[in-house]
Specification:
The structure holds two protein chains of two kinds. Helices cover 41% and strands 24% of the residues of chain A. Chain A is built from six helices and six strands. In chain A, helix 1 runs parallel beside helix 4 and helix 4 packs antiparallel against helix 6. The longest helix of chain A has 25 residues. Chain A is globular and about 45 Å long. Chain B contains five helices and four strands. In chain B, strands 2-1-3-4 form a four-stranded mixed β-sheet. Classes of the chains: A alpha+beta, B alpha+beta. At the A-B interface, helix 1, helix 4, helix 5 and helix 6 of A face helix 1, helix 2, helix 3 and strand 2 of B.
């Protein structure tokens, strides 16, 4: 994956496959540490599955025997001196945390979180999603509740007009946040 | 600069169009593979390009949805187009550049873009 945001998009699909209705996505940049967390209220994993989940030959789907999402993320994070940590219990949801070190030459850029989040909502418009991006003390927060409060009930977040608006809104907010980083340097 | 208040204008516009969308039962479906293989190969900007083109042309009879791994990972990004009453068409190795052609030729004018299909790639 060329961006951390693409790993995030891929990992979030696991939450959706586990029938999560609430997602909390956090991206934390402090110094050279980039940490992203995806916490869901999906069905969670048994200790047995949790122990095997970084093995590429583990998957819950029935059509094929491989699942590369978590192994690829773990490889990318560990290549930079980082790690991936999973907490999960049946019925209690799953929280995945990945740490990258941005000063390592193999660290991918954070990438386009606006496109990632907007397309998660395009695919699962019913979900409650919160996204927090912290960057050296500055903070941006997005909540689908804010969007629904303006849009009302009848309008799906999957309508192209709405998805594209969310993408551009998040991209603008990310640019502002990154601009503040530039000023602090 | 966008603000959350913009969404009220979108809401008003959408509510006027809602009846249009709902009365047309026969939707064209565009399905984009968004599993690990698709995402790694570039499916995310392809999906956005479809939404942009559909919004730009104000196509109300097209539904864009996401699916998992379609099974031919080496040909990702893969997009399947279902026109009611016709056979499914599978486009492979899609890029955002190819999307406007597929939308104008296939979704609007009903002509399959054979060069981009799985038949041409195999």
């Amino acid at each position: 994956m060329k961006e951390i945001a693409l790993h995030a998009l891929d990992i979030i699909q696991n939450s959706l496959a586990a029938e999560a209705s609430r997602l909390q996505i956090t991206l934390d940049e402090a110094g050279d540490e980039i940490t992203f967390t995806v916490a869901d209220n999906g069905r969670g994993m048994s200790p047995e599955l949790l122990a095997r989940v970084s093995d590429p030959f583990t998957t819950t789907r029935t059509t094929r025997k491989m699942g590369l999402g978590i192994p690829l993320l773990r490889m990318a994070a560990e290549q930079t001196g980082g790690w991936v940590h999973l907490e999960s219990a049946l019925g209690a949801g799953t929280t995945l945390t990945a740490r990258f070190h941005s000063n390592h030459i193999d660290c991918p850029p954070v990438g386009d979180m606006g496109e990632t989040i907007s397309l998660v909502l395009q695919g699962s418009p019913e979900i409650e999603l919160r996204y927090t991006h912290r960057l050296n003390g500055q903070l941006f927060f997005f909540d689908t509740a804010q969007v629904r409060a303006q849009l009302g009930d009848g309008i799906s977040l999957a309508l192209p007009e709405v998805t594209l608006w969310i993408r551009e809104y998040l991209q603008e907010q990310e640019t502002i946040l990154n601009g503040q980083k530039g000023m602090n340097l | 600069m966008k603000s959350l208040a913009d969404l009220k204008a979108i809401r008003d516009r959408m509510q006027q169009q809602m009846n249009l969308r709902d009365t047309e039962g026969d939707h064209i479906r565009v399905v984009v593979g968004m599993a690990t293989c698709g995402i790694a190969a570039g499916a995310r900007p392809v999906l956005t390009a479809f939404l942009e083109e559909i919004e730009k042309r104000e196509l109300k009879n097209v539904a864009v949805t996401q699916t998992g791994c379609i099974g031919v990972c080496r040909l990702e990004p893969i997009v399947e187009v279902y026109v009611p009453g016709q056979e499914k068409v599978t486009y492979v190795k899609m890029t955002p550049d190819k999307v406007p052609t597929v939308v104008s030729e296939h979704l609007v004018n009903g002509r399959v873009v054979s060069d981009y299909t799985i038949g041409a790639a195999e």
